[in-house]
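If your schedule permits, I should be very grateful for your opinion on a structural question. Kindly check, if you would, that the fold set down in the tokens agrees with what the sequence suggests. Thank you for your consideration; the sequence and its tokens are set out here:
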Amino acid sequence: MSASTNNLQAKSPVLHKRGETLIWHFLRNALLCIGIVLIVMPMWLVLINSFKTLEEASQSFFALPRSVNLDNVHELLNGQNYFHHVGNSLLVTVVSMTVVAIFIPMVSYAIARNMRRRYYKFLYTYIMLGLFIPSQIVLLPIVKQMASLNMMNIWGLILLYITFSLTRGVFLFVNYIRVLPIEIEEAAQIDGCTVVQTYFRIVIHLIKPMISTLVIMDALWFWNDFQLPLFLLNRSRDLWTLPLFQYNFKTEYSFDYPMAFTAYLISLLPMLVVYCFCQKYIISGLTAGAVKS
């Protein structure tokens, strides 16, 4: 009797642990399934409604289209001045990304390697204060300032994107660069490299994952942003970026769902392709330096 009791007592922790494992696996899989549904369902609705007529979408929003109707695509690409707004978005995204990719790593490297000096420490602290200020608070002063400078245009929008990227970019890069071994840079300087040569020949190759991370994250933001273009570019239709153009399908009394979803789908494809090919750089950039070797 005592031997069987001892065996049950010995097995009970194992059974208890196995039960906890099964519960955890069930909860994890349930949460993953919910997450997949929440992500895939909106994309599925965009896809099926892109091939419907306005009458079909009004009758049944969730039903499959009766046939593959490409009239929305044809009308969007040929009758809505679509490519002009694509060009505006491309100009904003490419120019902003280029300046961000060149300027922010340089600033961050100077701060990271001179943090012991008061000036650079103050500069870093001053830039980091931007993390604690919600963007909605500064929108009104920014719009008034840009209007007084006569920069309510695409170039003013690019300048604001570069400015707003500075805070997050410097935060990521400074912490990334500080965990890099400084001995490599010291060895290069002993061999006769200047600071500029060390940066372009050594450091820039070490921080490529973080550059890719910042460029991809900011590209998604610049391409999809609606708030800043709404405030700066809404005075003229010729200045609209794609998000403003897509918002144009909504009127006071109606909303052209098929045309809007067709525009969403076509505009989504470039960023989706870029993200699928470059997501490994985001993961490596965010996790590098997390564990010391």
Q: What stands out?
A: The chain has two domains: 2-49, 79-287. The first helix runs from residue 2 to 49. The radius of gyration is 26 Å. Confidence is low (pLDDT under 50) at residues 289-293.
